[in-house]
Amino acid sequence: MPQAPGTLLGIGDDAALLAAPDGRMLASMDLLIEGRHFRRDWSTALDIGVKAAAQNLADIAAMGGLPTALLVGLAAPPDLPVAWAEDLAAGLAQECGRAGASVVGGDISAAPLVMLAVTALGHLAGEAPVTRSGARPGDVVALAGMLGHSAAGLALLQAGRTKPAALLAAHRRPQPDYAAGPEAARLGATAMIDVSDGLVQDLGHVADGSGVRIDLESGRLPQDDTLRAAADALGKRNPLDWILTGGEDHSLAATFPPGTPLPARWVIVGRVETGRGVRVDSRRSEGLSGWDHFLGPDTLH
Amino acid sequence: MPQAPGTLLGIGDDAALLAAPDGRMLASMDLLIEGRHFRRDWSTALDIGVKAAAQNLADIAAMGGLPTALLVGLAAPPDLPVAWAEDLAAGLAQECGRAGASVVGGDISAAPLVMLAVTALGHLAGEAPVTRSGARPGDVVALAGMLGHSAAGLALLQAGRTKPAALLAAHRRPQPDYAAGPEAARLGATAMIDVSDGLVQDLGHVADGSGVRIDLESGRLPQDDTLRAAADALGKRNPLDWILTGGEDHSLAATFPPGTPLPARWVIVGRVETGRGVRVDSRRSEGLSGWDHFLGPDTLH
């Protein structure tokens, strides 16, 4: 595994040692379970490595941080081909490289199915962390990245489709825009979250954490022809529920004080108001749900 | 979860934020898989929480570090009783408290069996890390903590025994002496390792990493009447193989320059020589093996 500059001691000891240049370290962990978060017949080992890295590195970006390192636990059946594990490692390394991070440690164990545990570490370069709790009435809500592509890709796989390739790829190998996170912190974002479980559900965490209401305008949400074509192909009326409730695109949603000049990658999609919950076009969104960790409608089965 | 002082942001955001007072952070991860690392009929949820925390916190101590935080991933069947998860959390918090650390984040997921992924973080308080690669010929090899108690406890459980309680407890709830790690760093330890897979196997990593031979004297290894009584009860000739190859006691083995004045908890058990490998009473130890992550003789089945 290639090592990024902040790795003072990498793989090979009881623990890795990492630079924490401003005296603080961000840390986050996600689990990926075979049959629930990925299927080995739908994704290659490289895909799964990329995805496992991406979703964890995105959590660091969502705090305004720069990801520096991953620890990876791999539990696998003893008959897992070594080449599969090597491809997984290649995918992890590839996505780490895109983010400026590296795999610095981890663990392996036998288990009846493939399970990945990934911890991402990173630092804030002296900035304040951007939490879920700082949104204030009057702030704008802005989005960096696409929505619904991963959910559409999953729906296509579930229907046995092999096109469009871009949507299948979005599901298999999300490519978060890591630089958007620290950029938002520098711009004075008041709150931020990684859209991993669905826009409405994740902005619900911001609304709850900040004690505010979030109003989304569906006409401002990013749609594109590919998504509409996939909806048509699957007999869906429109792709809006993918956009509002689909997870795993790992776009960033942030709130900014009104009037903050936003670079092009940030698209304003709504506004923060007094109240509670999330509304879409002035309607309450309670009927819209995203991923539930035990009952999720997006389960792969 | 109670939060230790170094927690700048704990549970509830995309990532936790931790103090890294000397600008560096230690990080380590272990997996614990049901049926392989624990059995729910042999250990309570509290036991498993304590053990999961202890084995990870010990990895930080083994670098000479002070543990500060854990991230915990829990994958579990949807029908896992909530009380079991609560007791697990209580065990994690209890052992974190003993070490001065706290649980600052993690993840949950459904899975067909219980799997824990634990990342431990900590800092070095300005000291140099103690790695596996610094042992030099002439150094003494010293041990802080007991050996073989966890292996004896496992053997008793496998034989359906319920006594002696101290050995069963050693298997279920290891209690590492965390302070021994930073103490060894301050004393100038040249190498150190957490004895998790068995003394011979783990010192083999030090011998390999340092390019030296390690000679152990079996007469100096800590034995006690409880261990001998357990060996008698199970018809074993003596408990030496538990002591040499049993894992999971999470004692610390370290090498020190000759003449280093060692506090009482450190017992000299051998010497570093030129050469390679580990010898016990001048005999090569190749026949002695500890835990193998896929084939281990200590498997719970």
Number of domains of chain A: 2
CATH architectural arrangement of the largest domain in chain A: Alpha-Beta Complex
Q: Report the total helices of chain A.
A: 8
Any idea of the CATH class of the largest domain in chain A?
A: Alpha Beta
> Alpha-carbon distance between the termini of chain A?
33 Å
- What's the total count of β strands of chain A? 13
Q: How many whole angstroms does the radius of gyration of chain A measure?
A: 19 Å
Q: Which fold name corresponds to the CATH topology of the largest domain in chain A? A: Phosphoribosyl-aminoimidazole Synthetase, Chain A, domain 2
Largest interface: A-B, 64 and 64 residues
User: What is the multimeric organization of the chains shown?
Assistant: homodimer
> Segments of chain A where pLDDT lies below 50 for 5+ residues?
295-301
CATH homologous superfamily name of the largest domain in chain A? PurM-like C-terminal domain
Query: SSE string of chain A, helix = H, strand = E?
Result: EEEHEHEEEHHHEHEHHEEEE
Largest sheet of chain A: 7 strands, mixed
